[in-house]
């Protein structure tokens, strides 16, 4: 009770948070899975992907996105990537606890990945360092490295888009979670990189939350 009175998240006190109907272990080294991120899962599951699609979850944190996709689509080949070794250990533990057949890789975004992938998904840092929300609620107890990005929160999103063009199959998809005011900016990043069928989906609260696009090589 004393820890809760200071504002410490319930997920940190109990050590887990439910996501897409499954319990995920969380620690202070990872973001706490949000219900709005389930929007990304639902869209990914509806994409026209091969039965044995190669998928990677960048900045996986607790592993909630990648592990869920691997369990919902057992024939997909799913990899989890995180720069934080502590976070990657949490993801590895969750994958083991939930019997999810995933590969865990340490590194920055797509650098440790061979590819090519049919689907790249990520919920990267996208909050501007000056955003007042960083001083409110659960985010006060979450790792800043998983929350904050330069260039008004767009730096990591832009870097993932840049790297993805070299790691997607022709017709492969890139899907990014972002802030509720960043839909237009992320669509512009995908458009400028040559992605097609670019669109933004809304979360449970009706806010822009996930932007995706289909990669088309210059020769296609």
Distance between the termini: 59 Å
Please tally the helical runs, counting DSSP H or I stretches of 4 or more residues: 8
If classified by CATH, what would the architecture be?
3-Layer(aba) Sandwich
Outline the low-pLDDT stretches: none
Instruction: Write down the secondary-structure element order.
Output: HHEEHEHEHEEHHEHEE
Radius of gyration based on Cα positions: 17 Å
CATH superfamily: Vaccinia Virus protein VP39
Q: How many structural domains are formed by the residues?
A: 1
Describe the structure.
The protein has one domain: Vaccinia Virus protein VP39 (Rossmann fold, 3-Layer(aba) Sandwich). The protein has helices spanning 2-5, 10-14, 38-46, 64-72, 85-97, 150-153, 155-164, 183-192, and strands at 16-19, 22-25, 54-58, 77-82, 102-106, 117-122, 168-177, 196-202, 208-214. Strand 4 (77-82), helix 5 (85-97) and strand 5 (102-106) form a beta-alpha-beta unit. With 220 residues, the chain is α/β, with parallel strands linked by helices.
């Amino acid at each position: 009770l004393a820890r809760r009175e200071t504002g410490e998240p319930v997920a940190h006190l109990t050590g887990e948070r439910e996501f897409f109907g499954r319990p995920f272990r969380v620690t202070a080294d990872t973001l706490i899975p949000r219900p709005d991120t389930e929007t990304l899962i639902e869209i990914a599951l509806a994409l026209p992907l091969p039965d044995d699609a190669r998928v990677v979850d960048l900045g996986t944190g607790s592993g909630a996105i990648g592990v869920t996709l691997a369990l919902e689509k057992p024939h997909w080949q799913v990899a989890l990537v995180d720069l934080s070794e502590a976070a990657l250990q949490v993801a590895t533990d969750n994958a083991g606890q939930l019997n999810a057949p995933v590969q865990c890789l340490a590194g920055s975004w797509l650098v440790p990945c061979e590819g090519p992938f049919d689907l790249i998904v990520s919920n990267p840092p996208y909050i501007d360092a000056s955003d007042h929300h960083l001083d409110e609620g659960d985010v006060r107890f979450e790792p800043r490295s998983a929350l904050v990005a330069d260039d008004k929160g767009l730096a990591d999103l832009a870097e993932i888009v840049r790297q993805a063009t070299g790691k997607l199959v022709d017709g492969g998809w890139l899907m990014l979670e972002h802030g509720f005011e960043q839909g237009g900016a992320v669509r512009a990043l995908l458009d400028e990189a040559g992605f097609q069928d670019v669109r933004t989906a809304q979360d449970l609260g009706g806010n822009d939350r996930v932007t995706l696009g289909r990669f088309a090589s210059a020769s296609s």
